[in-house]
């Protein structure tokens, strides 16, 4: 296509298109007649009238996508049921506010298990609600399954059904709230008669709930009386270990380090987990060497623990609660009470033994001063001094024990920590100090739930034993940002209550949206044994409180089999650990929020109800953003993909099932109208020209992306012609990343050598409308022509204007009306079984066509985390030898650096300046065509 | 002021010649060690003493003051003419007239101006660790019946074979705690420590009780019952042992754990109980960390010293129990009779009168403690005095 450079003329398939677009006329005319315009791929659209129309229609649009082509690592993926009617999704009546999920009406959802950890100050509940897959009637699916050799039987081979694991806590002193909660959700009953899981309970109401913690004894009678259930006591230590093992194996971003205010998640290889030291800091401290599931030994402990902190703290200060005491420590200066090395050595360091002047020589050593009494010391200082003394001591003893048994990892949990940044810093410092940097203290996000989880695991046949990380997806409830990992309010019933709750927050003026400036790194200054360089005012007491979401168990999720190195795979390309990066994307998301709300409200008919939901969504999402700004790791590791998926989840939470429905529809129609002419044009080209034109078409069509702010602005300001012209101009090769020649050689060979065609290509599609219809479908058709099976991979749930697996069959069917290749392939792939197409008489003879199939990817995000894909995608991928990832979300924001066992083609137009600079050192609208041979 | 009484008790009517003085100025206490020559060098040496020609017989004296009352100390030094130096001119290799005394501890830096001003002498600073180790090595090798174990109220002296002394772990419990692995004379490494030490006991104790002195607090602990304040395993498991993990119901699960009760305030707890609880918490902790460090380096012996212990039986007992508990009986805590003076002794040994160290070491024979002092019936625990070890009969040599 060198000619492009010389000439302002586009050459498509050997047809020259001039700027005036004469050649594109038929297409354009058509567009002019009926639709808002789209074009792409070699098709040119002209016509200002169209543009005006687009302008109008687009004005309500939001498009936050440009920033957002996210990937979703984890939010919800409904295992694989694109066939569910999302429009009827409802929030289950008794979901408490922390539960972010929407229940799909066709699924039965049963509470199956409840387990308790009743401690001295908190009661922790873990319960599991499951949902059954509804029978698969979907013919497409059936055919796909047959094709791919995954019969339903395959799915049934999973012994467990999907469901959700919920985490809830109450103050022990308010145990009645807890009982009410259990009763209102019938949690105690669910365990009894719902399913065969619970063979050990009889149906006569003699229900048994697994419980651990001291309160399991203390409150046994109360449970019996109020709920008629018996508490089956599980050993505390057993539970702790079982809970920790489960979390470390099942949740990807569970463990983290915390040094000088910086939190960093640690990826732990499941096969290299054991042995480790588990330090549980309750009133006292237990140190447990864990060698495997159920294999552990309490090797040490100390009586100087949380009870000592709180007990001494209470005696020494007026604090009324543990949290108050902890909070006080933030403002303290322990140098008024502790004797520092500098106090002894006259502020010189005692370098010889590596102690600096600010090292604490003697905790409370200054309190021996005769002139002073208890009242002469500030409670803040006392609290900090106590906190350091105890944290350091625990850190030191833990390290010594780890050393003794040669344990690399030390995990700290228990109520003393409570996500408190200083405490974690102090412990980490001690471990770091004494180990001279060789050992690291780690903490767990769900640390408060170890016991409850362990009790939960002690049910026989809970079926979670073999749970794999990829089957769990964690999602955060609307209320998460408000509760900040703390005890949450009363359970919320229905959607309406949720909205009211949200509104109440706003009325109360509760400060939820103002992001707290993050402490710059190192400001905790908790130099371990040293005096903090800052007194801690920069860090909120609860700054490190981590939210705990609901774990969705999706047994059908699998690791994408073509990943070259699943262990090393990191979906996110952009690391949001960088604060400026984080800020940028937050700004982008915030800026686009109003548009999105408009669109969402419009998609629901603009009713008052939808407006109210829209407001609530905006508040909830803003709160999530604010929370993440102040604590990026609040929900676990944060990548752009997670952020983008969070937004989609948030929309679903307020029952906006598909904000872009009408837009997608309109664009699909417009594009389908143009398609036949495009295909004709393509067919008139030589194979080589056509291949380039097709790739160009994919790239150019990718500009029509409602997720891109830049593009949405184009819709608003420019004409379609202008957009397309610009897009085509950018198409001039070489592209910013341009492996087309290599790809062409693979496809067409060089010289006389005809390469062997691909057996099966997986095409990960992106947007609805022009993108998929004028870009990807023609490319798919080309593969089919070469005799390559094609699997179109689309979202399970809507995300922005991305096309979904549910929508694709109709689109393909419509396209097939005008194209034999597509029709035969679609028939072969089972996409046309409904005989929507009657032109198929002819097709019988050609039934030998390779199939065109559609599979869902298992997610509802603009990005994709290939560690968690639907089983049907996984099955389809096994025989694939080419993967085409298209669009920013799936090819750039995520997976740009992913390596595959088979060949991969990554195609995208970069619609964000910052990303362009960062990723490819280019500019907005640059194109990426990256071809990677199998690795 | 803890004026040692050896001068009087000694019963030696001859004028004492103070020969040498060394100081250990810590965060809370100042320890003095000085040598007094017996009036005549020919005084009868103890019978087990190997007499070396040219030796000087005399006594090592030990005294201590609270650091806060440093003026008492200065006065004591000056009143007893400790600076006169007697038979051992420490200035012999010193070209100027300025006299100096060896000193260690942080206060050697902090108060050096004060000594200059008040006494006109310079403090020559000796490294604290060096002094501790030197002092301990000296005691362990040179003094009979210096080390003992303490368990269940009974003290048992341990005879340590000099050839099998090293390596050992020296745990010095002052305001803070230093743990030192000692491999030989002058060969040692500070391997660990903790800030939870004597200062913590006294500091917290002072805040929590009305005690006016460390010793008063310690004394209180005798009468206390920590079960009123500590959460025991039995409190959690309803009086049952949590035998599965080897915890008795009387094991402390959480020090001060009961103080979290909302119904009670500080005044509701007896100072005795608080003191006892504090003492157990700190002693136990030190014992545990010490054991873990000994284990780490494969050290058989852990020797505890420092002023926190003060030969306080309950303190020693707790530490011993902690070591015993965590080591499952395999390690033993040992204590030194002169535990509080390791640093001062070490500083004393550091005078370079042609290497006094060598002289002493060369003597190597055990030096018996003055019997009359060892069994001092006037021992008053409130004064925190040691078991009558205020002086050691010894000989030193000039090279």
Of all protein chain pairs, which has the greatest interface, and how many residues does each chain bring to it? A-B, 62 and 66 residues
Secondary structure tally, helices of chain B = 13
CATH fold assignment of the largest domain in chain B? Nucleotidyltransferase, domain 5
Mean pLDDT of chain B: 74
Biggest sheet architecture of chain B? 7 strands, mixed
Measured as a percent range, the helix fraction of chain B is 25-40%
Low-confidence stretches of chain A: 1-111, 132-137, 151-160, 191-204, 487-491, 508-544, 835-844
Percent strand of chain A equals 5-15%
Number of E strands of chain A: 25
Gyration radius of chain B, rounded = 22 Å
Kindly report the name of the CATH homologous superfamily of the domain at 675-686 and 735-932 in chain A: Uncharacterised protein PF01937, DUF89, domain 3
Low confidence ranges of chain B: 1-18, 40-54, 86-98, 354-389
Number of domains of chain B: 2
Assembly category: heterodimer
GO cellular component, one term (chain A): nucleus
Organism (chain A): Populus alba x Populus x berolinensis
InterPro entries (chain A): ARMT-1-like_metal-bd_sf (IPR036075), ARMT1-like_metal-bd (IPR002791), At2g17340_3_helix_bundle (IPR035073), ATPase_NBD (IPR043129), PanK_long (IPR015844), Type_II_PanK (IPR004567)
Region (Disordered) (chain A): 55-83
Summarize the structure.
By secondary structure, chain A is α/β, with parallel strands linked by helices. Chain A is built from 32 helices and 25 strands. The relative contact order of chain A is 0.15.
Can you give a write-up of this model?
The complex is a heterodimer of chains A (935) and B (399). Helix content of chain A is 38%, strand content 15%. Chain A is α/β, with parallel strands linked by helices. Among the domains of chain A are: 255-444 and 501-507, Nucleotidyltransferase, domain 5; 675-686 and 735-932, Uncharacterised protein PF01937, DUF89, domain 3 (Rossmann fold, 3-Layer(aba) Sandwich), CATH 3.40.50. In chain A, the strands form five sheets. In chain A, strands 7-6-3-4-5-18-17 form a seven-stranded mixed beta sheet, sandwiched between helices. Chain A has a seven-stranded mixed beta sheet with strand order 9-8-16-15-10-11-12, with helices on both faces. In chain A, α2 (25-34) runs antiparallel to α22 (661-683) and α23 (687-701) crosses α25 (720-730). With 399 residues, chain B is α/β, with parallel strands linked by helices. Chain B has two domains: 6-127 and 340-397, ATPase, nucleotide binding domain (Nucleotidyltransferase, domain 5, 2-Layer Sandwich), CATH 3.30.420.40; 147-229 and 269-336, ATPase, nucleotide binding domain (Nucleotidyltransferase, domain 5, 2-Layer Sandwich), CATH 3.30.420. Chain B has helices at 6-9, 70-79, 107-110, 112-119, 128-142, 198-208, 214-222, 233-236, 271-297, 313-326, 342-349, 356-363, 371-374, and strands at residues 17-25, 29-37, 55-66, 100-104, 122-125, 147-151, 154-157, 168-173, 177-184, 187-194, 231-232, 252-254, 301-305, 332-336, 391-397. In chain B, the strands form three sheets. In chain B, strands 7-6-14-13-8-9-10 form a seven-stranded mixed beta sheet, sandwiched between helices. A six-stranded mixed beta sheet of chain B has the order 5-4-1-2-3-15, with helices on both faces. Chain B has a two-stranded antiparallel ribbon with strand order 11-12. In chain B, a hairpin with a 2-residue loop joins β9 and β10 (187-194). In chain B, α5 packs across α11. Residues 1-18, 40-54, 86-98 and 354-389 of chain B have low confidence and may be disordered. Classes of the chains: A alpha/beta (935), B alpha/beta (399). Chains A and B meet through β12, α11, α13, β14 and α14 of A and α3, β10, α6, β12 and α9 of B.
